[in-house]
Amino acid sequence: MVAQVVTAPLPLPDAQFLTQPQEIRSLSGKLNDVPVFNSNSPEIVQTEGILLSTFPTSGKYDPSAHLNKTLNGRFDLFAHHIARPVGDNRTLYQGVIIENPSNRFITVKVLQAASYLTSPDAPFIDLPRQVEDPFGQVFSGPGSRLMSDILRGFTQPNFPRQITIAPQSSAMLFILPINASNARSTYMRLESSGPVYMANLAMFAIPEILPGDEVASTTKPTIQYRQPTLAEWRAMLMGGRLASPRDKAPTPIAKINPNGPDRPIYGRVAGISVGTEWVAKLVDKQGGKYLSIPQRGGAFSYPLSTVNVGTHGTRQIQSAQMLARYPDTAYLAHGNYGVHYQLTLPLRNKTSDRQSVSLTIQTPIKQDQYGDRLFFVPRPTGQVFFRGTVRMSYINDRGQAQNRYFHLTQRQGQMGDPLLTLNLSPGEQRQVTLDFLYPPDATPPQVVTVKTEELFYGTSLRN
């Protein structure tokens, strides 16, 4: 397999690309049916208001701000918002309120939870394109750090283990600040013992005059600020409007033309999406037990987190469906932020020679026209399209079980470096499992590539 420099009719006009001839396969498996309270619109919040509410419409000042859907059993919460208030430097608080509409007590268990701000928790920094990170200390941006924590099973201690809500009552799941010009990313895995309503709200810190200053007439009173109370959050829920400004409305799916000149507007997500995990065993054929490695010098790839335009010829759209949404937000959960991809590859060397096979995550140029090649940029220097942590689980060449984490930083059109290289004897089969949660602040799609190297590299000390 030889990469050649070509000029192709792709999204970067008049650019030269490295074309990599190879097979591109659809990803087997599918998303599970666990719902996600998915709050990402408006991404930039400038006013107080309702970010996402599944509460009933009755009795609300703005019925259009409520989706009237309960959540029950296992469900997740994903939220990603940036505070950029206009003319107000007060801290913006994000509050998630849960209501029990039933006549019995309901318990909501917090199975896992983490949340990070850009500053000071996880500033965006320049990182090498691949760094091994066994302890979760390598990240760039709150989405990168958040998904690394969730992948490792970590829960921040400031979140409750569970909350119990009395009949016909409500409680705050959490209240967290988002300082001006900061982003906050949050992910929670939850389980409810009964149906509940949930809302994600934004409210500025509440000003109060310090005791004693209210009677002083000769000096300017001292103002202190506090986070809102449950009663104030309830008042926002009942009397508030959708937060603004609103993001660009999405292009209707029926009007998206993969081969058209105009790029579709996908929109930001605000609603209940369906699917938290994509589990797949990648094999030669349905019901098979192994994945044959390519011929020496050959490769094949599986696209990840594909969207309507950008399937690399597979026509497979992996974006999660929406159970409920606001009319001006995304029709699908494009990007699958927070979705856990778990891909098992039972690699088998069916040749009569020892072979070196590598696994790589790559960010080729997004396209739909070609299903037999990938396109890369010789020297990627543009926007970062992927920053996040992946886990590789496998048996190395010395028979030792490995569980390794790598933080990847990839720009548009980047070929990527092998995450591991295994040396397989004739007839040998060895299983590799790739895990990662698709991170916020990333742009899909990526691909996972299996390649048999043109030369046999002997015993690998690194893998």
What does this structure look like?
The protein has two domains: 4-31 and 277-452, no CATH class; 42-239, no CATH class. Helices cover 4% and strands 43% of the residues. The chain contains two helices and 30 strands. A hairpin with a 5-residue loop joins strand 26 (384-395) and strand 27. It starts with a strand and ends in an 11-residue tail after the last strand. Mean pLDDT is 92; it is low at 1-9.
Summarize this structure briefly:
The protein is mostly beta strands and 463 residues long. Helices cover 4% and strands 43% of the residues.
List the helices and strands and how they pair.
Blueprint: E1 4-7, E2 16-21, E3 23-24, E4 30-31, E5 35-39, E6 44-45, E7 49-53, E8 71-83, E9 92-100, E10 106-117, E11 130-132, H1 142-151, E12 162-165, E13 169-178, E14 182-204, E15 206-209, E16 223-226, H2 230-239, E17 270-274, E18 277-281, E19 291-292, E20 299-304, E21 320-325, E22 332-333, E23 340-348, E24 355-362, E25 373-376, E26 384-395, E27 401-411, E28 420-424, E29 429-437, E30 446-452
Parallel strand pairs: 3-20, 5-8, 6-8, 18-23, 19-23
Antiparallel strand pairs: 1-2, 2-25, 4-18, 5-17, 7-14, 8-14, 9-13, 9-14, 10-12, 10-14, 11-27, 15-16, 17-21, 20-30, 21-22, 23-29, 24-28, 24-30, 26-27, 26-29
Helix content: under 10%
> How many structural domains in the coordinates?
2
Uncertain residue segments: 1-9
- Protein structure class: mainly beta
Supply the number of helical segments.
2
> Cα-atom Rg, whole angstroms?
24 Å
Percent of residues in β-strands: 35-45%
Distance, first to last CA: 24 Å
Indicate the mean pLDDT: 92
The main sheet comes to: 12 strands, mixed
Question: How many distinct beta strands?
Answer: 30
Overall shape: it is: elongated
